[in-house]
């Protein structure tokens, strides 16, 4: 047994000398003084010994146990001492607190401009039903956007308002607001929208839109133009112009697509200052498409129990990713979603 004890002490001393951290010391204590230690095993052999032997080895083992415990205490004391020698006034390493994502900050910037013009911000629902996403917006059953190729339908039991789906645009927010509130209304509604598009440099199955609309007795198309021009100049730069091209949307009549004069070549297209070189952002056209808009279709107002003889409204919808790509010269939509900090940190405030 003496042999055994000698070996035990040597092992303990070697391990103790090698232990560097508090955790390692704790492990050592369990190993050498715990219930399953070799020492405990030796203690368990004592009852089997004869009288004299029993008291001799009892005392001997207790002494060893005390010695090990004392050496262990001493060692922990010394590491405690080291911890206390830490200089708590030393400057800490910088903590990265993060910042808003470029899509959130762009969306906020856009909303703030409209808020200053008197628009209220209202969030809609990402899970919609066919009634709000299509029917109330005068989108008939045969319209291609209602096809399963263009819409994420959900496997939820359908109710009176038809199948559930991930909204394909923010326009259903118009319906939700107009069903609940009566004019005068001026509302801006940001959020995510979903379309089962194949992902490439300009498409994503999920992206962000901002819907805006105003309803009152005297609303007209020139107010829509004025509001959008004010937004474009505030957001891009004071010298941009807008171009309204006739278009078709089922929920607005008349409808238009709106282009902003290219912010890079200042609308010059191919006649840039750099000797007739074609502008790569607008591909030489001088204009960049930024949104869709129009006067709210009377059927849409009626679907929300608003008298279309008395009231009229304008509405517009824009894609946040597209606007951010134009403003910051980003050429691939996938960069927004890859969480690559080298990209994102360029836009943190
Ligand atoms: N909802 C249309 C889209 O997603 C945009 C739009 C909104 C057009 C409001 C006109 C009026 O393409």
Description:
- By secondary structure, the chain is an alpha+beta fold.
- The strands form two sheets. It has a seven-stranded mixed β-sheet with strand order 1-5-6-10-9-8-7, with helices on both faces.
- The mean pLDDT is 91.
- The chain has eleven helices and ten strands.
- The protein has two domains: 2-76, no CATH class; 102-347, 2-Layer Sandwich (BirA Bifunctional Protein, domain 2).
- The chain has helices at 2-18, 22-33, 38-45, 51-84, 102-116, 130-133, 172-180, 221-235, 298-303, 320-328, 341-344, and strands at 120-121, 127-129, 152-153, 164-166, 185-194, 206-216, 242-249, 252-261, 287-296, 312-319.
- Helices cover 38% and strands 19% of the residues.
- The protein binds phenylalanine.
Instruction: Specify the overall morphology.
Output: elongated
Approximately what portion of the residues adopt beta-strand conformation? Answer: 15-25%
User: Which structural class do the helices and strands define?
Assistant: alpha+beta
Residue ranges: pLDDT <50 for 5 or more in a row?
none
Q: What's the CATH class label of the largest domain?
A: Alpha Beta
Q: Which molecules are bound in this entry?
A: phenylalanine
Topology as a string of helices (H) and strands (E): HHHHHEEHEEHEEHEEEHEHH
Distance between the termini: 71 Å
Q: How many domain modules?
A: 2
Strand arrangement across the biggest beta sheet: 1-5-6-10-9-8-7
Main pleated-sheet profile: 7 strands, mixed
CATH topology description of the largest domain: BirA Bifunctional Protein, domain 2
Query: Total number of helical segments?
Result: 11
- Cα Rg: 36 Å
Number of strands: 10
- Please give the CATH architecture of the largest domain: 2-Layer Sandwich
């Amino acid at each position: 047994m003496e042999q055994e004890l000698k070996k035990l002490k040597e092992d303990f001393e070697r391990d103790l000398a090698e232990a560097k951290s508090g955790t390692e010391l704790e492990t050592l204590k369990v190993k050498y003084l715990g219930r399953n230690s070799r020492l405990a095993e030796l203690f368990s052999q004592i009852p089997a010994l004869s009288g004299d032997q029993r008291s001799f080895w009892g005392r001997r083992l207790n002494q060893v146990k005390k010695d090990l415990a004392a050496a262990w205490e001493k060692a922990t004391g010394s590491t405690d001492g080291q911890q206390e020698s830490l200089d708590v006034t030393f400057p800490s390493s910088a903590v990265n607190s993060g910042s808003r994502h470029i899509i959130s900050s762009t969306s906020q910037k856009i909303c703030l401009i409209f808020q200053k013009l008197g628009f209220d911000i209202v969030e809609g629902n990402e899970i919609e039903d066919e009634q709000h996403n299509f029917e109330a917006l005068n989108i008939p059953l045969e319209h291609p956007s209602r096809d399963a190729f263009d819409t994420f339908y959900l496997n939820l039991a359908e109710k009176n308002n038809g199948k559930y789906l991930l909204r394909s645009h923010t326009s259903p927010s118009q319906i939700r607001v107009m069903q609940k509130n009566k004019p005068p209304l001026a509302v801006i509604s940001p959020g995510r929208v979903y379309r089962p598009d194949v992902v490439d440099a300009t498409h994503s199955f999920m992206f962000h839109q901002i819907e805006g609309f105003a309803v009152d007795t005297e609303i007209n198309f020139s107010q829509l133009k004025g509001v959008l021009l004010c937004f474009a100049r505030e957001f891009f730069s004071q010298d941009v112009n807008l171009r309204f091209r006739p278009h078709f949307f089922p929920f607005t009549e008349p409808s238009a697509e709106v282009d902003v004069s290219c912010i890079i070549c200042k609308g010059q297209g191919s006649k840039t200052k750099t000797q007739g070189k074609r502008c790569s952002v607008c591909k030489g056209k001088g204009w960049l498409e930024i949104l869709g808009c129009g006067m709210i279709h009377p059927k849409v107002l009626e679907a929300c129990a608003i008298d279309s003889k008395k009231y009229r409204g304008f509405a517009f919808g824009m894609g946040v990713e597209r606007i951010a790509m134009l403003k910051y010269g980003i050429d691939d939509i996938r960069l927004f979603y890859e969480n690559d900090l080298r990209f994102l940190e360029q836009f943190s405030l």
